[in-house]
Structures are given as C-alpha cells and as structure tokens.
Amino acid sequence: MEKVLVAMSGGVDSSVAAALLKSQGYDVIGVHMQLWDHGEANFERIGSRCCSVIDSNDARRVCDQIDVPYYVINAQDIFKEKVVDYFVHEYLQSRTPNPCAECNNQIKFNYLFQKADELGCKWVATGHYAQVVQDEAEGVARLHKGKDEHKDQTYFLAGLTQDALKRTLMPLGGLSKKIVRKLAVEFELSVSEKPDSQEICFIGKPGYQEFIEKQTSPDLRPGGNITTTLGEIVGEHRGLYRYTIGQRKGLQLKVKDPDQYYVVGFDTRRNVLIVGPEKYLMNQRLVASQTNWVRPVSGLKGIECYAKIRYQHEPAQCSVTIYENNTIHVDFEKAQRAITPGQLIVFYQGNEVIGGARIDEIASTEAIQ
User: Fold this and answer.
1) For the stretch 234-273, what's the b/e string if a residue is b when 16 or more beta carbons lie within 10 angstroms of its beta carbon?
2) Which one of the listed residues 51, 121, 201, 318 is annotated catalytic?
C-alpha cells in the first residue's frame, strides 16, 4: 500500500495509469495541474481540450470512479512565466522552442514532487509512454523508450534528474496505445472514448503565429527582406518568427523555381530571412547547452551514442564532446537535415536515454556537397 501521486491530465493515458496502479494495490492520489485558462473560448476553434475545465472535470470524474482522492494545483502564473513567455521569446529570437519538454523540466515534475512530499507519497506516476528501470546494482534509475515506438515520449523527458527518476513510475511504458484504450473500456472509465489532446495545449487550431501576435506588439516582429545564401533579395517576410528552418511553403519568392528553396537561416542583426537549395539544410556538427545527463556519464572522452534532433527524427549515430558550463559539441557520422536552434537534442544508447540538451547553433554553415 505504498502511496503514489498520479498526475491526472483528464485524458485516457493518465486515467488508465491511475486505474492500473490502484488495481495493483497502490494507495493512489490523483492530482490535476491547472496550467492554462482558455476562458470562454470556443473549444471547436481552439481544437484542444487540454488545460480546460472539461479536463479538470474529467480527471475528477475518473478519480471518483476508481475511488481515490483528487486535488487540483493552480500553476497558471508560473506556467505563463516559464513556458508561455519562453515560447514567445524563443520565436522572436528566431529559435524554435519545445514547450512540452520545458513544461516537464520547469514545472510539472517540480510541482508534483513537492505535492507528493506534502501528502506523504513515496512515488509520482504519469501516463507517459516511457519506462523507468531501477538499476539497484548500479544505484541508478534508467529511462528507457516505451514499448510502443509510435507513442514513445522519452524525447520530452530527457530533462529528468536521477532524484526524480528514482521516485517515478510510468505504468504505461510497456503497453501499446491500443491496449491502453482497451484497458480504459475494461475499467469502465468515463474517458475511454476521449480523443487525444493537441500537443501544445495553450495554442490550438489558430496556430502559434496568431498566438504570438496576440501576446506581443507589432514593433517586436517587423517584416524585412528575404535573401538567398548569395545575398540576392528575392522577397519579403512578415516577421522572422513566422518561419522555421527547413520551411518551404508560404515563402512567396520571386525566383524561377521557388519550390527549390528552403529556409536555411536567419540574420537577426539585419532582420533578414535566408533561403537556399536543400543542400544548405545538411550539416554534421552542432553546439548545444543546458545539458542534462539523465544517467551519469564520464566527460573525459567523447561519448558514442545516437541522437534525435527533433521528436519524429530517426536517431543518428554521433560523438559528443563535453566542455565547461554544460556546453557540448555533437559530430554526426552523416549529415542531418534541418538542425534547428532552440529544439532539443536527445541522446540514446540502445533503448536508454542518457541525456539531452538545447541546440544553440550549427557549428558549420558550409553545405555538404
């Protein structure tokens, strides 16, 4: 009857996680984090029910069904400061942020463990598709990919520390989404047919560009020129925040073959968007910082591993060199397409996550021939 605090989003995954742990004999307490207030928004237009009153009510209803206590934590102010403001600031600096990982790192787990301590809970559990392996022989907790490769969420969890992992349960890690849906029906949970929520909970269907425009004044997002890698002016942009590395659509270029041009960089000093052929998206080296090693590693020599430079990216073989202040250089065996500053790079050895960092820059802008 060990006490476990379960993070309840109001969705299927966290609800099944709570029901599973209850059935296994844990003393379960459900906690819902209120992160964002959509107010009276039209949810059809928002296109996401995450962080809504609907979600809170769904989480409460599930806790009533499985007969466990239910609490709500209001974290809207710090979510606005640490996640939403960060999200807007990064785009205005011509970087592409990852708010879900930032929310995990800065807010969710911090608040959950604080609440767990207040309630006397040994464990914190979530509905993530990932596996935590307690390696008692080595005295470390290991973060492994979820069994369902299509749902694996370890990319967003690479900021977790050893202290956190040693107290974390992820009961869905060994299951597929299909099985989780079946379990929701077997447990007769009220959310068994509820669709999955949108990834970025505070934006919804209108998109990030409209969201940023509502959060900022026009003078912070001026338009400017679009140039080729050779400096030829080929169009005008409507604010650098509207574009990401590798983008091809919506550029409206005045060139012979516009479909052959991609966003390959930004000159923030001159407020210029740089476009070029696809070969300029291919690079083998990057610099990253804010590194977190999930599992302790030695920085005395290069670390051989595989890395993902975005969530849906195929892991690629690389070598990592560690420098001071948590800065690292990553050299890929083969050139990678559209390395994007602001995004996470996450390192794997086999199925295990060993660490992650935030991409600062491409180490060389020379195209790979």
Assistant:
1) bbebebbbbbbbbbeeebebeeeeeeebbbbbbeeeebbb
2) 201
User: 307 is written with which tokens?
Assistant: 């890395």
Other beta carbons within 10 Å of 92: 17
Ranges of H-type helices in the chain:
12-23, 43-46, 53-65, 76-79, 85-92, 99-103, 109-119, 162-165, 177-186, 208-215
201 catalytic per annotation: yes
In this structure, which amino acid lies at residue 335?
A: A
Residue 64, amino acid: D
Contact (Cβ atoms closer than 8 angstroms) between residue 142 and residue 295: yes
pTM of the model: 0.92
Q: Which of 103, 121, 305, 318 is catalytic?
A: 103
Coil/strand/helix, residue 248: coil
Query: What is the Cα–Cα distance from 348 to 350, expressed in whole angstroms?
Result: 6
Q: How many CB atoms lie within 10 A of CB 82?
A: 18
Q: How much helix, strand and coil, in percent to the nearest 5, is found in the chain? A: 30, 30, 40
Select from 52, 57, 64 the least CA-distant residue to 28: 64
DSSP conformational letter for 62: H
Q: Is 103 assigned a catalytic role?
A: yes
**112-142 pLDDT tens trace:** 999 999 999 999 999 999 999 999 998 999 9
First to last CA, the chain: 61
- Model confidence pLDDT, tens digit, residues 175-208: 999 999 999 999 999 999 999 876 688 887 778 9
